[in-house]
Amino acid sequence: MPSSTSSSSANERLPRGPWLRMWTLVVALVAGSLGALEVAARQRGILPTCEDSPTLWALARSRLPKWDPRAVAFLGSSQAQLGLSPAAFAAATGITPAQLAMDGTSAHGFLDHLARDESFCGLAMVEIAFLFDGRALHERRARTYAELYRAFRASPSSQVDIRLRLMWSSAAAVAAPEMSLRSFARAAAQGRWPERFYVTTRPDRTRLADYHVADLDRLRRQPAVGADSERVYLTGAALADRLAQLSDAVRRIEQRGGRVVFLQMPASAENLKRAEDLMPRTKYWDALLAATGAIGIRADEEPALSRFECPDGQHLDYRGAGAFTTALVHVLKQRLKAARDHRLDPRP
Amino acid sequence: MLFNSVVFLLFFAVVLAVHRLPVRWTIKKINLLVASYAFYASWNPPFVLLLMLSTVVDWLVSWRVSRARSLLARRACFAVSLCVGLGLLATFKYGQFIIDNFVAVLAAVGIQYVPPPLSIVLPVGISFYTFQTLSYTFDVYRGRAQPCPSLLNYALYLSFFPQLVAGPIVRSSVLLPQVTEPRQATGAQFGWGLCLLTIGLFEKIVLADGLLGPFADVVYNNVAAAGQVDAWLGTIAFSGQIFFDFAGYSLCAIGTALCLGFTLPDNFRCPYAAVGFSDFWRRWHISLSTWLRDYLYIPLGGNRHSVPRTYVNLMLTMLIGGLWHGASWRFVVWGGLHGLYLVVERLLRPLFAERAWTARWYAQLPTALLTYLLVNIAWVFFRAQDFSAAATLVSAMVLGNDRHLTLETVRVAAVCAVALGMCGGQWLLRNTSLEAVWSRLPWVLRAVILTVLILLIVLAPGDERAFIYFQF
């Protein structure tokens, strides 16, 4: 025989001891400690929340019905993720949309992903904050998420595992990111206890922002979504290319009986002005609608939608998100009706 | 299915419950085999067919080899096994790599060739089970082992889920006898198995994924901006990440198997306390290094021929060992660097032979430190995205520059603490074992330590990362 690795058998040198007693004590100590941490977390206002991970996105994506004209997907950035409520949309239409919007992300790569999926023939609601950002990170992210979605669909264990994790994280405050080791270390470095984060995430990727517990002064100082200094605003040939890509994606979805609606979310007057300075309406919004022929809804131009206030200047509070979505559904139905599209109407 | 997933805990609980039922050993083996195939299929169900194909072919071939009357017939049968095993590996793991290099060679001579796009998904763990089955047929071919009479036993040996996807690569002489005899874990095996599983999960979830991995990512994703200190910190973080990731996986595998009553060999023994590179490879990924030694280096001639031939054999073994890790020239360079280190060590060895002071701590400690630093430089090629990034980082590490990344102080402190703890701990434990240290602790202290580890696992940030070695 060749010399093998069997000589270091763990069996030959097993530690001895009262294993049952020891593991019983471990179970009791772990249960007691987690219980105490759960109480401490809830006393500090920390709520159970899910981690908005790539796998959670893949799960939401996998829930988008196939070959169904009534399938609805929300795409875009944090403005859409915080401001569009799938629950309110479902209450108003009977259709539960898939929340596929993502923090700091352009929708164009994700719209392309939906356009390439022959089974998608529903409605894509595309929020436009980062749509004309030329940074490569957006396409990279969309590609990564599309690949991850493919792997997720092929992996039964991932599909079961995320559901089990969601059961745990949506029930236990101790599983919230505020209670993570990293958060503890950061808070300890500043000589304080971890504090509640103002955003919580639901298993369907709905994110609820509670600005009553947020440091609004700090948030208002942050650059507006889509108007930060790192952005690359597409112009000239690059802008034409992006418009052509978007137009192609819209055409492919519409050829299958689907529809794309572009959406400008509410923002404070100051942020809207800044956005207009950086992305003049005629050059971007009007060009987008002209190139794609899609429906466009701007919250600042719809009386029913312009009354909503963003506490931090650019995102809706969870209290406003539901009402905004209900109002948006009303406007959307009117626009679709004008286009002889009745997909959101109740089924007979 | 990852060891660090909730679904694995449920799966393992069910398998364990069935395994402890008072039923015949054959039924228990079928339970383990079905569980192993389910475990493997949970990533990508169709690939379980490849595992089955490999199992049946090598089981049949081993019988044909043992019954063949002529050397030619034995060789032909063994060639079939090699062709199937290495053929699957070449297709699924190296297919794209081979085509890319073919295109590059044609381009170098002025021929532009655009191959049709390949979309090959790498079956998880294919390198591990291929090496395991090759060692079996090789042993039967050389007459060192008898063919396994039972297909069920052989299938379970090859697919045993704790070590299926990332090792340890277990020889048939170690696991097949265990599969043949009825086994059930004793209380001590079960208790210690759970301890190993907990320690392994702590290493993977808290240290590798929670602390070191994200830090290494920051540096390796911003190579152009990294200064000398950043480059060293990022690389030290990665060397810790890959150790805790893989050693953690191995501990989980050994612990899981032990809970079922099976004993798997160690895969790591304090590698960062190695004094020299021969010592490093006796401590790092032991099941692979011994496999390469027994099935590649020694068949190539080992050190039985001339000195230059020994160096060539050593280099070839390490280059192939590097390529085994992944279909990229970066892994070949990583293996080549280790081959070079081993060659230089062999060249220098006569200078220090039979000098008593070389065994003293004041000689060994600096040598261990030098080994660690050079191992870290080799890791750059393992981790970097491409050669350009690796060259930039090695240049920053060795020559320095005037750049620097903005790294969070808390994270830097955590990485330094973990790296120091890891190296210091391994130095202190280099001549002992985890079991020996654990045996010296009072049971209440053991319980407190395990409680802390479990709490840290639960409170670790939820970064989702597969084990690094799954991609190999």
Structure description:
The complex is a heterodimer of chains A (348) and B (472). Chain A is of the alpha/beta class. Chain A is 48% helix and 8% strand. In chain A, strands 2-1-3-6-7 form a five-stranded parallel β-sheet, with helices on both faces. In chain A, a hairpin with a 5-residue loop joins strand 4 and strand 5. In chain A, helix 2 crosses helix 6 and helix 10 crosses helix 12. Chain A is globular, with a radius of gyration of 24 Å. Chain B is an all-alpha fold and 472 residues long. Chain B is built from 20 helices and no strands. In chain B, helix 10 packs across helix 18, helix 10 runs parallel beside helix 20 and helix 11 crosses helix 17. The longest helix of chain B has 34 residues. The model of chain B has no long low-confidence stretch (mean pLDDT 89). At the A-B interface, helix 1, helix 7 and helix 8 of A face helix 1, helix 10, helix 13, helix 18 and helix 19 of B.
Secondary-structure-based class of chain B equals: mainly alpha
| Count of helical stretches of chain B | 20
Strand composition percent of chain A = 5-15%
- The amount of beta strand of chain B, in percent, is under 5%
Largest sheet, spatial ordering of strands of chain A: 2-1-3-6-7
Radius of gyration of chain B: 23 Å
Distance between the termini of chain A: 76 Å
Determine the mean pLDDT of chain A.
87
Percent helix of chain B: over 70%
- Give a quick account of the main beta sheet of chain B: strands, pairing sense, barrel closure: none
What ranges of chain A have pLDDT less than 50 throughout 5 or more consecutive residues? Answer: 1-9
The total of beta strands of chain B comes to 0
Number of strands of chain A: 7
